Sequence to fold (261 residues):
Amino acid sequence: MEVVIVQDAKAGGELIAEAIADLLRRKPDALLGVATGSTPLPVYDALTAKVRAGAVDVSRARIAQLDEYVGLPAGHPESYRSTVLRQVVEPLGLSPDAFLGPDGTAEDVQAACEAYDRALAEAGGVDLQILGIGTDGHIGFNEPCSSLASRTRIKTLTEQTRIDNARFFDGDIDQVPHHVITQGIGTILEARHLVLLATGEGKADAVAATVEGPVAALVPASALQLHPHATVVVDEAAASKLKLADYFRHTYANKPSWQGL
Ligand code: PGA
Fold:
């Protein structure tokens, strides 16, 4: 696992956007796994700026969703489908046809989960998956004690995650669904490159447990330790509880520039 400590969220967004641009220059139809939440927004802003500046062509890129609420009506502005369309697909000028996601409105949720795992495999698998991290260490909506081998499935959100996400629902926790569909940890680990971005003091404990703690279902993001190409990008605040912070800084400062992320 590589840990890169950046000055702030903007620098993290720029670094990851450049890694995505590099990937798209090598593989123009790459499948990009995107995450929702506040953390990845600087990545999408930086990538959109590169597209507008003509630095990268995203016209053949494809986008895959990480997770989704169950039971929000189709087109609800806070469904993750609407969110990804608004924050990623539209600013990048992609067609909604370039977008894959699980159906959170399906009557048969289990079938929708299995169909999504199949669709990801048929699309050739995710090339680069952007991840955020919950204060409880979740990735996607794999809450603590999710199986490290899990596939896409329905999960029940913890109260903490519903409290964290109430800000997207007028601050009203009662509007936050209890259930979600999420790519499983096993599904996420199939992506060719995992890039987790964490910013702010509130993520420092989860980041330390992910990077320096044991691999444990209690900290779902610690599964990144099992992946052959995982990058954790953190700002100074989110890095503040890493014992090996100086080592990570030293390693990144001395990395050959051709190596990329
Ligand atoms: P956040 O969410 O980026 O809004 O903090 C992260 C997550 O819950 O995965």
